[in-house]
Structure prediction request, 266 residues.
Amino acid sequence: MKRGQLIGIAIAGGAGLLAFLLMRSIVSGPSAPTQVAVPVNATEVLVARRDIPLGEVTKETDFRWQTWPADAVTPSFITQADGEAGMKFVSDAIARAPLLEGEPVTRQKLIKPGQGGVLAAILPSGMRAISTKIKEETSAGRLILPNDRVDVLLTRRERSPTGQDEYVSDTLFFNVRVLAIGQDLASKEGAKAPEGNANTATLELTPRQAELLARANAQGEISLSLRSVADGDPKGKGPTAAMNDQRGTSVRILKYGVPSRAYGVN
Prediction:
C-alpha cells in the first residue's frame, strides 16, 4: 500500500474516533461535578431543644448538642469540652431569661436553686423590687402586663386653705418597669391581660425610690399609668423620680399663705 493511502486511512480513522467521542459526550450529557469535602473548624454547643419560658425549671431533655462554627463560640457557651459538668449545670436549673428553640445556652441565662430566686436573678444590679396594691381602676383596667412601662401616681386627701378636704394627685416616678403582676413574671404569648385577678404589681425601683413608694402607700392610693411602647426605655436609663426627694431636704409650697405639699429637692 502506498504511503499516501496510509496517511488517508489514518486521518479518516482519527476523524471517525473524534466524531464517536463527540457523539458520546452529547448523548451521555455533562459529567456530574466532583464534590470535595472541605474540613470546617466546628464544635458542639448546647442549645435549647424547645422554647423555654422565664422561670421554668429545666431538665436535660430540654437541650441537645448542635454543631457550631468554632469562631462563633463565646466563652459563655456550654460546649462538649465542659463534659458532664455542662449538662449537669442545665439540669434542674431555673431560666432567668426566655430561651428560644435552637438558641445556644449561656450560663447567664440559667440559675441553680439556692443561688437566689427568679425575681432576684432578673433584677439589675442596684435595683430593688417592691410591690403595691392595684385594682381595675388603678391599673389601666388590669391590662398592664409584666415588662410594661408605667408612671406611678399618688392620690391622697389634704386639707384645703378653707378647711375643707380635697384630693390631690402627684406623679411620683416616670418610666418604671413592671416586674410582675401577681405571681406572673412573664406574660404568655398573645395574652391581652394577666391571668386571674392579681391585686399586686411588683415594680423595679432604686432603693430610695422604693422607700418613697412604701411611704406613699401609707399616705394614699397608688395608680399605675401605662406608657406607650414608643415612650419606652431605649437607653436603659430606668425609672426617674418626678419629685427628686432626698433625705432631709424639702421645700414646702405656700398657697395663699398656707403651707401645702412638700416636694423634695436636690
Notes: The chain has four helices and twelve strands. The mean pLDDT is 78. The CA atoms of residues 34 and 192 lie 56 Å apart. Helices lie at 3-28, 84-90, 118-122, 207-219.
